[in-house]
Design a protein that fits this description.
By secondary structure, the protein is of the alpha/beta class. Helix content is 44%, strand content 20%. It is built from six helices and five strands; from the N terminus they run αβαβαβαββαα.
Length: 136
C-alpha cells in the first residue's frame, strides 16, 4: 500500500473531473451493472505512464461525446476494487495504469500500460475520444 499523502493528489486529479472512486468489489459490480457506457481508470503511482494517463482522461472528458458513467480504482491502494475490475478484463494481463471502456458491463475498449507509456496526454486522449465517438 502506498501512503495516502502520496496518492491523494493523484486521486484528486481524477475525482475533480467527476470520476467516482471504486473501493470494493461490490462498488465495481454495482458500477458495471450500469446501462450505457462506463469508463474505468486504473490509476497508478507510475510517474511516466500515469502522469500521462490522468491528464489524457481530463482532455478526453472535454469531448462532446463521452461515457455516461465515470470511475477509478487505484492500483496498490484499492486492491479489492482493482482486482474486481481486472476480473472483467480477462483479455489483457493486469496493467496499471490502464483505461477501460465498458458498455452494459462488457469490455469494448481498453488501453493498457503499453498503449500509454511514452506517449503524450494529447495522443492518449485522441485514442479515447475516437473510442468515445464510435462507442458512446
Amino acid at each position: 500500500m502506498y501512503p495516502k499523502e502520496m496518492t491523494d493528489p493523484m486521486v484528486k486529479e481524477l475525482t475533480t473531473l467527476g470520476i467516482k472512486e471504486l473501493k470494493s468489489k461490490s462498488d465495481v459490480e454495482k458500477a458495471l451493472r450500469n446501462k450505457g457506457t462506463t469508463l474505468v481508470v486504473i490509476n497508478s503511482v507510475c510517474g511516466c505512464s500515469a502522469g500521462s494517463a490522468r491528464p489524457a482522461v481530463g482532455i478526453a472528458l472535454e469531448h462532446t461525446k463521452k461515457p455516461k458513467h465515470l470511475y477509478t480504482a487505484f492500483a496498490g491502494v484499492d486492491k479489492e476494487a482493482t482486482e474486481a475490475v481486472r476480473s472483467h478484463i480477462k483479455e489483457y494481463p493486469p496493467s496499471s495504469p490502464s483505461i477501460a471502456l465498458f458498455k452494459d458491463g462488457k469490455l469494448i475498449f481498453f488501453l493498457q500500460r503499453s498503449d500509454i507509456q511514452g506517449r503524450h496526454p494529447q495522443e492518449i486522449a485522441k485514442d479515447l475520444t475516437e473510442a468515445f465517438d464510435e462507442m458512446c
